[in-house]
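Please check the following for our workbook:

***
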Amino acid sequence: MSVIELDHYQFVRVSGADALQFLQGQLSCNLDDLSEDRSLRGTICSLKGRVIADFRVVLDAEDCLLQTADGSAQAIVTTLTKYAVFSKVELTIETNHLPPWGLLGEDSAKLLLATFGTCPAADDEVIDSGGVKIIRIAGVQERYELWFTGEADTVEEVTGADTQGREHPAAATRLLESNSTASLWDWARQDLLAGIVHVAPAQSEFYTPQLLNYDISGMIDFNKGCYTGQEVVARMHYRGKVKKRLYLLASDTEIGAGDSVTQSYIGRETQADIVSFSNRSKADAGSNLLLAVLTAENVANGGKFSLTANPQAALQILELPYSNPDQA
């Protein structure tokens, strides 16, 4: 079991009497399903149906706490502020929020039970244990996140400009006694294997939810009411098969920043975006992995895929943990 500091996130707090009602009209997930024991993943879209940022939202007392990729918090606040004029809400970026911890490995549940006496059993389930929110995260390996939302009562001093003076709860620090070597690389690799993409600021408003599989991985609720961008997202969903999808691929060759995928099918070659990737480490015998937006027809009909920078580097398509209706 490994404990990993997840310092690649930011948090936005939405508070006020109208917080839930306001967010219901802005987010792709259904806030009616949000509860003290269930978190939701979703996206904020532009009027054109493009993804501005993705997030996980948790109920924290009367507030909604949104976790998003580092650098995306300001885009969320700026976007939501435009629609908050007539609502009783306050939007703030949490600047003193302790980075959450990620627990990764087969003994994680056992240690959480031993430490806190409880452990969430289903993906996205939340248990609050004395100001520590324990959230089960989807992945190939068993993993959890610990969000530190309560008042500190304990021993481990946290340094750093934004969290100076904050401390982790004593129970949480005992998990470190069982910690083994792991890093943020291991956590990001689990996101890749789970087919999870976190939109970076440079990718904001570049992709539709369908291109990132957000519509088939539980981040879009097509039965809720209207939200910003909903008309475009719904029209793309109901008009038929999606032409492009996100796929997980493996490479024996290292992937470079800015690289792309060459798709070869019936004598034609086209380029496809690599959205995220993870090269294997020296200690890992696995493949180099990448998530790319490919043409669904090319995949369905046995097209060939390679790294554009190295045409001899053939890519193998791997299965994702959620079903793709376009492959049915």
In short: The two ends are 37 Å apart (CA to CA). Residues 207-323 form a domain with the Elongation Factor Tu (Ef-tu); domain 3 fold (CATH 2.40.30.160). The first strand starts at residue 2 and ends at 5. Residues 152-165 have pLDDT under 50 and may be disordered.
